[in-house]
């Protein structure tokens, strides 16, 4: 890393990260002078969803998604496999909602676990989801089933949206999706009857067909028409407690960062795009590559990245590849150096304060000593940082010192958190359901801002529409 920084600049070393270890390695990289950082969990998972919801509501849904499944009366899953790939809390809430008689509508070519628990299973033709979403909008608008008072108060562009979806009838969608018109109408009416306690779930791993931001935007607009944003049984407004950051020195400013690898593409990206980092690691004819080395932690690139030949070409072009993980996997087979990380039961991680219904603090602490040569990421990055001459960024002997300092700033302590594990804050800053508003009332304007239904208002993202997706080539069989 010293040699690469001297020869090509620290920016030439890229970080692919995910999970708890990523926090420590991001700190190391920023101290080193590189912000060439990307997570597959953005470009290969939630990125299009975040862009679509931000273009509509001004907010990304984040993780965990602020879906009030426990109070919903209708849950719509479109390519979202709750029970197979979602947060455990959402699985539990969905189970409770089913027991209470909530209507579940599952749109999936496959008869999934969620489909088996659903009132309606719509086995849609793959890659035609936007057509179904537009037809649902058409029914809600032209049968006067949308939340008129909510839209008039909080939304812009309704008349333009109405004009846009005028041709997208259930009969039109039937020819594209194979879902019968009467089923499209019946499910749209079911959503409207339960509104505003209806959730069209934003989903996860939403990078499918190349129209993913448009599909996510269509899901966001559908939720707006149902009046579910900021309503009980729909989407709640998250609360969180921000811990003061430890007083590290200011990071050096890099000469370039991940956004410079985009070459004008992906204007709505607000996090590093892994595809672009991979491409920037491959020399072009007559031109050297910008990125010379990777550090990969907490993510298995051969499984998470598309276009395996391109990934292989990038790996072959690297001068150096370091992998940090808890166990062997595909990516470790490409590594020049493997730094074994211990598991979550053997280490301290950052205090968790992820936004949720109410603010909380949660401590992850070791219950056993690390096995073998494995070490926690805070220790690995501290050792690397000191060897790189970055000791001022690691002014502690043990990361527990940082945790204790942060907790004391909010009238807690490491000792208290070691004893109780999770601390729920009984007086949330601005809890959605504890501000004296009546159940189901629209959100306050300052929280919702202005919902954008028409894309001429919503900057550069055009109104959702359909486009043909090429059928996959036939499989080669022996």
Which CATH architecture of the largest domain?
Answer: 3-Layer(aba) Sandwich
Biggest sheet strand order reads 2-1-8-9-10
Mean pLDDT over all positions: 90
| Class by SSE composition | alpha/beta
Low-pLDDT stretches are: 428-448, 456-460
Strand runs, count: 13
Count of alpha and pi helical runs = 18
Helix content: 25-40%
The major beta sheet can be summarized as: 5 strands, parallel
Kindly provide the name of the CATH class of the largest domain. Alpha Beta
Q: What is the overall silhouette?
A: globular
By CATH, the topology of the largest domain is Rossmann fold
**Residues in β-strands, percent:** 5-15%
* Tally of separate domains: 2
Radius of gyration, in Å, reads: 24 Å
The termini sit apart by 46 Å
Task: Describe what you observe in this structure.
This protein is an alpha/beta fold and 478 residues long. It folds into two domains: 2-45 and 247-424, 3-Layer(aba) Sandwich (Rossmann fold); 67-235 and 433-452, Dimethylsulfoxide Reductase, domain 2 (3-Layer(aba) Sandwich), CATH 3.40.228. 36% of the residues lie in helices and 10% in strands. It is built from 18 helices and 13 strands. The strands form four sheets. Strands 2-1-8-9-10 form a five-stranded parallel sheet. It has a four-stranded parallel sheet with strand order 5-4-3-7, sandwiched between helices. Strands 6-13 form a two-stranded parallel sheet. Helix 2 (19-32) links the parallel strand 1 (13-17) and strand 2 (37-38). The protein is globular, with a radius of gyration of 24 Å. Mean pLDDT is 90; it is low at 428-448 and 456-460.
